Each structure stands twice: as structure tokens, then as C-alpha cells.
Amino acid sequence: MNEVLLSQEVIVYLLSESLLFGLLFVAFIITPLLIKRWNFDAFTQEQFRLENRSYLVMSIVFFVMALKILLLPYFVYTIDQLSDIVPGAMCGAGIIKANGYGNPLLLLKIIILFLSGFWMTLNRLDLEAKAYPYTKRKLWFFLFIFMLLSIEFALDILYFTHIQTTNPVTCCSVIFGQMGGSNALFLGLDTPMLLLLFYLLFVLLVLMLWSKNSLGIIVTSLLFLFVAYYSVVYFYGTYIYELPTHKCPFCMLQQEYYFIGYLVWGLLLVGVFMSLDYAISRWLWKRDALRLRNFALWALSLFVLLCSLFVVVYYSKNGVLL
Amino acid sequence: MGWRVSRELIVGFVFLGLLVCGLAVHYLLYSTPKEQNIQTLSRLTTFSSPSLSVAFYEPRLPSGNAMHPSYPSMPSLNKRGFIYAQ
Amino acid sequence: MHNNAFFHFLSLLLFKQKNKHIGAIFISVIIIFLLSSVLFISSSLQKSLQATLQNQPDFTISRLQAGRAVDTPTEWIEKIVQIDGVSAVTPRVYGRYFFAPNENSFLIVGVDFFDEQSNRSLQELMETTDLKSFFAMPSMLVGEGVQKFMSAHYYSDSFSFKLPNGSFKKVAIAQQLPSSTNLIANDMIVMPLELAKEIFAMEEESITDIALNVPNDAEWDTIVGKLHLLFYDAQVIDKREISKAYKSLYNYKGGLFLILYLITIITFMLILYQRYSMVYSAEKKEIGILRAIGWSIQDILKLKFYETLVIVISSFILGVVLAYIFVFIFDAPLLQEIFLGGENLANSVVFVPTIEFGILGSLFLFFALPFFASVLIPVWKIAVTPPKEAML
Q: Is residue A54 part of a domain?
């Protein structure tokens, strides 16, 4: 009997994923016909029926996407809980590395969330316009996301059925710590350079958002996501844990650190997503969603402020930097 | 302009809110004192084996009454070993 | 659509048609109540055990002979003390005393009461502050289960232990341990160390096992290695192993229950699907009117979504609160039997209130997601009702 599959969180998670996938499958089955026959200008019974059906697809996708947003933190929480069962693991980092499916799965989940966010924006625009101008594009886009979702579902099952509770996994300090003095950062950067890059990119991103340069926003926000990930893992994380050798993106999600990781990573992902969404809807759909941009600015600034605050608080308490 | 919601709904939500508040108050007041004695005892004995007729810390109890006389290896249902065991 | 009027309409509608929803709410509350009671019990037990583990020594070491634990020689203590980084090395004496062969047994734990800290703990547990009478004659503290068992066998204020050499040792029952400690103390007897040794007829130079602390947990693995190098016939039990055992213990319990509960949830989904298909098809005329006065499909979907949300949230809160009252105020009568084995001595424990957001989140997902998923298609079916239905 596989102990992992008996864990409450895994059961709830897999049940949720299966139900959502079942619903998506219903939507997937009716989509090809919709794409093939959709003709808004026709006044036929069939077009009327198709319009109704497009609402079914829309409701299902909307519902699934909304829940996927909830399921991502839940997935991370599940992994974190598993670290109590799997030997050697102190936090989610070891569990996600327990087999080859973990890391692609997590990455895919984030990509799908971003894509489905764009889908939701497109959907809203489509409904606002009277003539459903984007329906076909929206449906094609859904088919593409569905393909990714099927891969994700398969990975989900493969991942959870292949975690061994007998083989010890590596602890986060082994995965993220510097091994033998080699530099874990990309391009041979050192910490001051990384921080400089972090703040520079943030300022650049804010400027881009102000100047509404779509392409610039896309490029800088992706770069910022990348650099911010490294900065948090290798610099700000050590201040969250108040331990210079503790470098891990997962431990901060635990209760000992007041679940602060959910806020840190959540703000970063939301901020980057909103900037991307803003840029894309400006670039492709010619909409200037100022509210989206302001949200993005708020989330990103909060993220940077929160990270910097950990350093400041640590310095004011102890008088030294790590 | 305020929100206009029917009175029953407000009453319902206030009721639910009160329930949740009551629960929170009970939780905050009673979760620590209830735990104290058990903590003191475990500090005294440095022992934490749960007394559920299953021994974790100590060597296992020799299984006494089998459930079925002709099938003695079947453990008694009243012993939680069949689920609690490793 | 004006939000304000929309919510007003929604709330009026909900109470106007409350009979339609009461059935669904009732089933939901029962389902959540049962499930969350079980999960509350298991998380509470788990938390209590983990909390007692906090006070435990990091390692216990005992001697193995032919694969069985045998008495550990006291000279091991001096050797262990010399390892760097080890602190609080204490001898422990405990064991099972069988009332009659292969029948009920008590767990006798010997405690060194002259140790300052255990003396303080003892004072906290004792009702009287007068410890003199406790030490004046051989006396013991007994758990509730033991107390009940003894008084059923007419030992109300003292008990005669039968020693291995055939003689009897009479020990006074000083006090019953508080019933809030039943989880670990139901079958426990606490007595002075020397007395316990006498009852088990242990040799002067031996103890059951040795407990030790290693304050720096980075050194834990090294210390284990050193202990094994020091004694070839030693069994070292790590606190982490016990913690993991407790964890997976209750994971099994909750997990098995959840797997069985999947069937209930799927049945529940079918019922909801049927029920709402029926309820909504009776609403066709109403929705047709709404559509005729200019509501879009989107608006109807929104209306039904909020309606479902209100139902889901209120039944979730009701179910969880009921379960909380049942488990943590009434100590889960009936249901707690599932979690307690009573073969040795019947037990009834007091549950320490525990609320874990993870468990509440799991519960909500486990309930709300199937609920929404099963009403989604009925909702869509009704939402696309053409306005002409109003005329029929």
C-alpha cells in the first residue's frame, strides 16, 4: 500500500484534479463542433444552440480556472505535508525532487495559471463586445490549454504514485546550498550584483508600466520573475530564516515562518501575471486596463517592500547583516 | 447608497458570524489549559506512548484474545493495531 | 446590471425559495459534520501526541539480546555521559505489569522524584500540596483506566503487586491522574523508581533504558553513530522516528476514512445533480421572465453562482461548527470509540481543541468543489432558457 496515496491532502488534491479534469473533458468534447460551425452572422437554430453551448464551455473553463488558482497553493501545501512521511525531507524541496516529474509539474502549473489568466481576460473582452468577436480564438486557445492540462493531469498522477517512502530524499540545504564552493547563481553573479539587478529590474518594470510599453513590460517582467526567484532563494530567504546557510524556496511556506512564503511567492506571481496580462491585453486586444496596471504596481511594490523589510528588520534587531 | 440586502440574509449571516466567533473564543480560551496536564505528565514520566492498547514505545503487548478461535492470527478488532500499525 | 439591486434580488430569492435549498443544505451539513468530526479528532490526537513528544528525550538507548530488548546495565550511563554534546542522561525504568497472565496490563513507569524538575511536575499534578504522605509509604499515581479496573476488583485505596518471587508488595493509591491525561495515562501507573525496580524484580545494576538529549540537532546523526560504536548490542530510538510514526498513524486513519468517504461524496454529487436538475427545471418560467426583461445569460449564471456560493458557505460553516461542538465540547461520544482501542483498559479521552487551516482547507475543497461541479451543468441548462419560456 502506498503511504503517499493515503495522505489526506493527496486524496483531496487528486479528487479535485480529477473532478476538474472531468468537467474540462466535457468542455473539450463540445469545443471542436463549436469551432467548426461558429458563425455569428447566421440566424439559424444551430447558431443559437452553439451560442448556448459556448456558455457551457465558458462556465466550465471559468470555474476550473478559478479553482486552479486555489489548487496551486494547495498543491504546495500538500507537498509540504508529505515531507513528514518521506524520510530525509525537511520541506517541499526534497519532495518535489523525489522523482523526475515534480519540477516539470510545478512549472507547468504556473504556466497554465498564467495562460488561463490570459484566457479569462480574453473571455471578458469577448463577452463585453456584442458580437462575440473573439470566440473562435478563445476556443482555440482553450484547446491549447486543455492539451497542457491533460499533460498536467497525467503528471499529477505519475508524480504522486512515484514518490517512494522508503528511499530517502535530499534535504533543501543540499539542493540549494553551495556545494564545494561552486556558485549556484546563474552567469556567475555574486550576491551584490544579483541585488543590484533585482532592484534595477524592479525600477525598470515600474517605468515600463508607467510608460505603457507592452513589449518592454513583457520582457522585463519575465526577467524580473527570474531574478526575483533567485534573489529570494539566495538572499532574502536567509533573512526570513535568519540563518545565512538556509537557502530554500519551500521552508518559508511552513508554520514556523508564519506561512509567509505564500504571501511572498503569491505577491510575486500575482504582480508578474498582472503586468503580463496588462501588456498583452494592450498589445493584442488594444485595451488599456488601468486597474490591472495599478494592481500590478501595488503587488510588485509590496513584494519588493516585503523582501527588503526582512533585511531591514533583521539589521535593526541584530545590528549586523548576514 | 448602502447595500440593500434582505433582512433574513443579514440575520442569517450574523448568526453564522456569531457561531464562528463563539468557536474562535472557545478555541482561544480552552486549547491551552486542556493540554497542560498531559504536558506536565509527559514531562514527569518522559514517556509518550499513547494508551490505545497498541504499544509504540514499549515492546508490543503479546496479543491475547484472538477474535476467532479457529483463526488465531486474526487480530482482535478492538485493538487498533490493524490501522495504527506501521 | 446594477450590483446593488442584483444582490437584493438574490437575497430575496434565496429566502423566498428556501424550501428548494433546505434539502441540499441538510445533506451538506451532515456530510461535512461527519467528515470534519473525524478529521478534528485525528488532528487533535495527533497534535496532543506531538506536543507530549516535545518533552521527550531526543534519544533512548536500550540493550538488545537475541533481537529482544533486555535490561540495560547502569554502567552504560557513565560511558554515554563522556560523549561530547550529550546532556541530561537519565535512567528510565518502565514495563508492563500483567494483572493475570495474558490479560489486562498496566504500564508502570518509575520516576526519580528526587530530581528537582520531576518534583515540580509532581506537585503540579497532585491535588494536595502535601507530598510527605506520598513519600512516607510506597504509593503511586494511577491513570483513570487503572483506577476503574482496580476498584472493580475491590482495590480501592491500595493494590498488592505480585512479585516474580511469589511475595506481595502492597502499594497505596495516592491519587488518580487527571482524566485530561487519559490519552497517554489511561493504563499508566507512576511510582518511584526504586519501587518500580522492586516490582519488576530488576537487578540493582540494571535499568530499562537510558534517555539522553542532544541539544544541537545538527549533531544528532553523529551521536547516533558514536552510540552504535560504543555499544554493539544497543538499540537507539530517535525521537524523529516516533514523531513520524505518530504522523503516519493518523494519516492512515484520516486517509482510509477519506477513501471510504469518496463513495459518499460521489453519491452526494449524483443526488445534487438530480436534485438541482429538478429544482431548476421547475424554475424555467421564472428564468424566462428574467431573460425577457433583459437579463443576459451571464447574469443568470452569476445569480445561480452566488446562490450556490451562499448555500455552500453557510452549510460549510454550520457543519464545521457543529463538528467542533461535538468533538471539543462533548468529546465526541460514539465516534471516539473508533479512534481508541479498548482491549486492554477501556479509555475515554479529552480532546484538546485544534484548528488547522490545512484541514479546514482540505475539507472545503473536498466538499465545495464536488458541490459546484455537480450543479454547474444544471445551472447552465437553466441559464440558457430562451425568453419565450415565459410565455408558455
A: yes
pLDDT digits (tens, 9 = 90+) for A226-271: 899 888 888 888 888 888 777 888 888 888 888 888 999 999 999 9
Instruction: Classify residue A221: in a domain, yes or no.
Output: yes
- CA dist., res. A224 & res. A228, Å (int): 6
Report the gap between the CA of A41 and the closest CA in chain C (Å): 19
Domain count, chain A: 2
Can you give chain B as a three-state secondary structure string? CCCCCCHHHHHHHHHHHHHHHHHHHHHHHHHHHHHHHHHHHHHHHCCCCCCCCCCCCCCCCCCCCCCECCECCCCCCCCCHHHHCC
Do A139 and A197 share a structural domain? no
What's the confidence (pLDDT) of residue A1?
52
Residue C162 predicted with pLDDT over 70: yes
Residue A213 sits at φ, ψ, to 5 deg, of -90, 105
**Domains: count for chain C:** 2
Residue with cell 510514526: C245
Q: What is the dihedral of CA C310, C313, C317, C320, to 10 degrees?
A: 140
Would you call C184 an interface residue with chain B, using a CB distance cutoff of 8 Å?
yes
- pTM listed for this prediction: 0.85
| Range name among A38-52, C157-171, C180-194, C309-323 with the lowest pLDDT average | A38-52
Instruction: Assess if residue C220 is contained within a domain.
Output: no
Q: Last residue of a domain, which of C160, C192, C213?
A: C213
The answer to whether residue A171 sits within a structural domain is no
Retrieve residue A16's grid coordinates: 479535485
The answer to whether residues A141 and A235 belong to one domain is: no
Question: Testing the interface with B: which of C61, C181, C349 to mutate, by most B Cβ within 10 A?
Answer: C181
- When CB atoms are compared, the residue of A15, A52, A63 closest to C384 is A52
- Asked if pLDDT for residue C66 goes beyond 70, the answer is yes
Interface of A with C in 103-142 (CB under 8 A): 127
- Same domain? A33 vs A149: yes
Exposure on the CB side of residue C267, measured as CA atoms within 13 A: 8
Q: For residue C259, what are the domain limits?
A: 3-52+245-391
CB interface of A with C, residues 66-95, below 8 Å: 67, 70-71, 74, 77, 81, 84-85, 87
Chains with at least 3 CB pairs less than 8 angstroms from chain B: C
Q: Is C352 helix (H, G, I), strand (E, B) or coil?
A: coil
Residue A298, domain extent: 179-318
Over residues A158-185, the pLDDT tens digits come to: 999 988 877 777 777 677 765 545 556 6
Shortest CA distance from C88: residue in chain B: B46
- Which chains have at least 3 CB atom pairs separated by less than 8 Å from chain C? A, B
CA distance C130 to C307: 64
The rounded distance, in Å, linking the Cα atoms of A13 and C360 is 14
C298 vs A: CB within 8 A: yes
Asked if C288 has any chain A CB less than 8 Å from its own CB, the reply is no
Chain B residues touching residue C347 (CB < 8 angstroms): 51-53
Q: Does residue C222 fall inside a structural domain?
A: no
Give residue-wise pLDDT tens across range A103-112. Answer: 999 999 999 9
A81 lies in a domain? yes
Out of A134, A161, A188, a domain closes at: A161
SS3 C72: strand
Q: Does C126 touch chain B (CB under 8 A)?
A: no
Same domain, yes or no: C258 and C337? yes
Same domain? For C46 and C75 the reply is: no
pLDDT tier for residue B69 given thresholds of 50, 70 and 90: very low
Of A8, A55, A84, the CB nearest to C384: A55
Going by pLDDT thresholds of 50, 70 and 90, the confidence category of residue B68 is very low
- Could you tell me if C137 and C172 are in contact, meaning their C-beta atoms sit under 8 angstroms apart? yes
Distances (CA, A) of A264 to A66, A74, A269, A308: 20, 15, 9, 11
